[in-house]
Amino acid sequence: MGLGIMRLTALRWHMNLSALKSPVNFTPAPPEPRVKLSMLPVLAAAAFLCSGASAVAAAQHFEKHFAVKTRPVVVIHNVANGRIEVKSWKNSEVDVLASQTSDKIGFDMEQAGDRIDVTATILDRSAQPQELEASLQLTVPEETELQLKTETGLIYVEQVMGDMTLESVAGDVHLNEVSGYIIVRTTEGSLVCTQCAGKLDFKSIRGGAQVLQPALTNVSLFTTSGNILFDGDFVRTGLYTMKSGKGLVEVRFSGNDSFDLKAQTAVGTVDNQAAAYLKPDSHGAKHLASKFTKGLFGTVGQGLAKVELSSYSGTIRILKRD
Amino acid sequence: MLCKDMEFVVEQEGLAPLPEAAQAHVATCSHCQGFVADLAAIVSVANELPAEVEPPARIWVSLQAQLELEGIIKTPVVPAHGERSSGWHGFSDLFRSRALATATVGLLIIAAGALQLRKPPDASLETNGSIADPVWQVPFAQTAKVLNEQEIDLRNMQPASTSAVDTSFRQNLQQVDDFIADCERRVSAAPQDELAREYLSNAYQQKAELLSAMMDREGSMH
Question: Is the dihedral of CA A182, A188, A189, A193 positive or negative?
Fold first, then answer.
């Protein structure tokens, strides 16, 4: 529901501010006066290595600054191959640095109030893959909402606070010290979320998810065949759901954790390496595994958080960290 | 006139013109002056907003699917296999719009899931292993049929793209298809395995989303 409402909100936002738009066409030529355009010379080595790609004439860089007032919303859609990197600073300004390998990619950038839209589009459908590499480096205020979408490149976000929706087909998503309502959708890209806080919702087909040292109060991870690793503390009253169809679901908890555990697999296995810490449910609820599934129920500590693990054919492993 | 009367007057008659008694009260009451000023500011800003465009139908379809998934509204009943009306063809045509694909399949899955989960357990199924009810035999059959048609349409639209993204999509579609087949075998063997059924349902949803993404990409490329 959250994603749907978010999209609807975004739609309304877009409609209401449409009159305020100030579009800036960011195709490589001709450059606008406010744009810093630097045509770097052709690197001999690159030319040598890419001798088959005559259209890759030069790397091009564009940089643009957008002044913002409050918490901005940054929307990036990169259909080219390349990474999107987002870091934060103390300034009330969004800085966008775009790099591309050829003039067969165009950047459209526009600002509507505190919303910044950046879209990389392919101008020449006949271009070779090496001509379609475009990367974006953003520096944003610490409190910023993000909607990033890419196809094959890495999405990297560091030290940003705000709700974010990150979508990728084959690119990985790396998050470091981010907080907010974090939605990640990939087809085969994997997620590594280090020291994240807030809520995390991840879905993928082949991508895996690693959640390391989190302070997340609500986690929902689902992948068809990727592996899942949760290594960190469970926040009291937190809700954690981790499901993998064919992959490994591994949870490493600490001795101070307090959670109720429900682990079930249809045809996989449950590898309980923490039997000494798991006690029968202390809340009086009687859990019985279906006769069609293998299940493990128990409580660690007082059972304040709720942890649900499941797999179809993959292994579920529970262990205590050293 | 009292402050609470002011709220009633404004609610009933609007801001302009205020009745004389209300004007007299506002003139001496700073609280109501602020109240009237706030309302006037809101009306002024609202008048400057551009007229809203009617959201596309897919927004409502998507919302409906989500509300049904969360049990907030009831699921429409899907006719059984042998009872399909001619209206199905119209529905199928509707589904061909890729904008509605994901949401429609979501509805189908939910409806099929609800129908199957509501069916009372049949002890004979476990004892003799025979499965008489076609709903048990082929879970999510309607969904599978529609999705397979979509997949064929997509293959015809996209004969031999070699881009990394298209290749990734195809490989993942194959992965999902394999997983669906795996889950179907399990559900056929153990129809009351709710966990396997849940994974099958999720796999169909993923397939619908994947097909939708592939079609969107195909549309944007051409």
Answer: positive
pLDDT digits (tens, 9 = 90+) for A226-278: 999 999 999 999 999 999 999 999 999 998 899 999 999 999 999 999 988 88
Interatomic CA distance for residues B109 and B143, integer angstroms: 6
Residues of B with CB under 8 A from a CB of A: 49-50, 52-53, 55, 59, 62-63, 66-67, 70, 163-165, 168-169, 171-172, 175-176, 179, 182-183, 186, 190, 192-196, 199, 202-203, 206, 210, 213, 220-221
Q: Are A266 and A313 in contact (CB under 8 A)?
A: yes
Cis peptide before A30 (omega within 30 of 0): yes
Confidence of residue B107 (pLDDT cuts 50, 70, 90): low
Sign of CA dihedral A106, A120, B209, B164: positive
Residue A296, pLDDT > 80, answer yes
Residues A147, A165 contacting (CB under 8 angstroms): yes
Please check whether residue A122 is in contact with residue A132, taking contact to mean a CB–CB distance below 8 angstroms.
yes
Percent of chain B with pLDDT over 70: 55
Question: What are the residues facing B198 on neighbouring strands?
Answer: none
Tokens of A285: 């609820």
* pLDDT over 90 percentage in chain A: 61
Q: Do B195 and A170 touch (CB under 8 A)?
A: no
Residues 6+ apart with CB under 8 A from A71: A114, A141, A143, A144, A145, A162
Give the whole-angstrom CA distance, residue A67 versus residue A159. Answer: 20
Whether B39 contacts B13, CB under 8 Å: no
What 3-state DSSP class applies to B102?
helix
Q: Which residue has the tokens 């927004």?
A: B59
Q: How far apart are the first and last CA of chain A?
A: 38
CA distance A68 to A89: 13
C-alpha separations of A319 from A105, A255, A316, B112, B217 in Å: 48, 10, 10, 38, 42
To test the contact with chain B by mutation, choose from A128, A133, A224 the residue with the greatest count of B C-beta atoms within 10 A, namely: A224
Which residues partner with A243 through β-bridges? Answer: A222, A310
Please compute Rg for chain A using Cα positions: 23
Q: Which of B205, B87, B211 is nearest to B140 (CA)?
A: B205
A148–chain B nearest CA distance, Å: 16
Q: What is the ipTM of this complex?
A: 0.77
Nearest to A266 among B67, B163, B193 (CB): B193
Structure tokens at B222: 């051409």
d(C-alpha B203, C-alpha B174), whole Å:
12
The verdict on A201 touching B (C-beta cutoff 8 Å) is: no
pLDDT of residue B65: 57
Q: Report domain extents, chain B.
A: 3-48, 57-221
Q: Does B17 sit behind a cis peptide bond, omega within 30 degrees of 0 on the bond before it?
A: yes
